[in-house]
Amino acid sequence: MTVTSKTPTLLILLAATVLGGCNMAPRYVRPTGAVPATMPDGGVYPAASTDGQDVSAIGWRDFFLDPKLREVIALGLENNRDLRLAAANVVQARAQYRVQRSNVLPTLNATGSATFGNSQGLAAGSSAGTATGSGGGTLEIYQANVGVSAFELDLWGRLRNLNEAALQQYFATEEARKATRISLIAEIASAYLTLASDRDMLTIAEETLESYGRTRALTEAQFRVGTASELEMRQADTSYQSARNDVAALTAQIAQDKNALDLLAGTTVAEDLLPSGLGEGDYTLSNLPADLSSSILLSRPDVQQAEHQLIAQNANIGAARAALFPTISLTASLGTVSPSLSGLFGDGSKAWSTAPAATLPIFDFGRRTGNLAAAKAQQQGAVASYEKTVQAAFREVADALATRGTIDERLSALATRAESANVAARLSDARYRAGVDSFLNLLVSERTAYGARRDLVTARLNRVTNLVTLYRSLGGGLN
After folding, report:
1. What percent of the chain has pLDDT over 90?
2. Domains and CATH numbers, the chain
3. How far apart are CA 86 and CA 90, in angstroms?
């Protein structure tokens, strides 16, 4: 075989083609076994549902039934700063991936240069330049080139693995944005419903304050005429002042609820979009599925984010391994060279050059092996992080299902309790006014009725927020 000046370059390119498929990253296998295959059922958990829909396919506009709540959520998706930050992070990660991807391909540069020097060996008036002084001349060289500089031939997959790691980080950032969106929708709904329940609580406190005020006025009048003791008057005043405190506290709490909702929405929510109270209305769909495989958790954005980060660490191991092998780079150019500017593009001025280079690591005080060990440790940490994310997701769904399995029974019991307590309070009041029952029984009945009404509102809030939590934890809210 005839060996020419181009042979080394051709051999290098041939080797790059043959070895270009080398990938030293370990084969990725998704971790399994962190959670049971199915969600818990039986006992406190709801019975299997046959009419439940796929939660991830239910858009938030379909899941939330209250039109005012839908408008507030839409405001948040448009204006919330956390969501804007998450979107900016996605753009940044995409740009970083493009930067890393560019390293896999050669960068083509155009250069031009002019060199001026002095050579004592040039005779005056020589073709290399014009003589300037005794025994010397000015040397002029003009060049124009197009080529690549120090382009690394990715024989061992180092650049491709770094590119894969950047791509997976980009995917992870996109999943983080999705997770932020889902969480924002759930947080806005919870804040809206909490405001509604607190307004119901304020209504109850105001009604109780009015009732206690009538009782206090009656006992004060009876005390003045001697038919009631000072103890009874003071007990009535204690109940009245307690209700008065509740009204003031709830008024402040409602203002804070409004501030929290404005923060989540990213703007001031108009008063006509705020709820007047929670009541017994249906704010969400209620026929969410109960019989679920734990594999549904794998599609949650936070789990997807953790998996992409794990794959990125897997690729980093491949890049660290490849760094242990020789690095081969190529510098090549094609252009013209001339001793005069006017002849730069004339006949006979063409020039080319290639400069392959190989760097073999011999001794670096353990830097490369240390990087490999660090990459492996980071990969193991990413495995643990992924498994923890799956376990946390499993617990969220299991907790929501446990609450769902008992909340209707609790709500029914509390509704019946509140009704009975209200009737008992009315009967005690009538009996006290008729003089056939003690004032202490009246106080106990009124306080029991007040607490029962508050507990009922809390249970209603728990029921609807449980559905929101289950919807979010199953990955709903992207559409």
Report:
1. 53
2. 26-105+157-325+367-473 (1.20.1600.10)
3. 6
Residues in the chain: 479
Alpha-helical runs (H) found in 288-366: 301-322
pLDDT in tens, 398-445: 999 999 889 999 999 999 999 999 999 999 989 988 888 888 898 999
pLDDT classification of 119: cutoffs 50, 70, 90: low
Of the candidates 302, 283, 257, the one whose C-alpha atom is nearest the C-alpha of residue 467 is 283
> In whole angstroms, what is the distance from residue 9 CA to residue 332 CA?
10
pLDDT for 83-100, tens place per residue?
Answer: 999 999 999 999 988 888
Do 173 and 215 touch, CB atoms closer than 8 A? no
What is the rounded CA–CA span in Å between residue 98 and residue 202? 56
As a whole number of angstroms, the distance between CA 7 and CA 13 comes to 10
Contact indicator for 327, 364 with CB cutoff of 8 Å: no
Helix orientation angle between 439-473 and 230-265, rounded to the nearest 10 degrees: 10
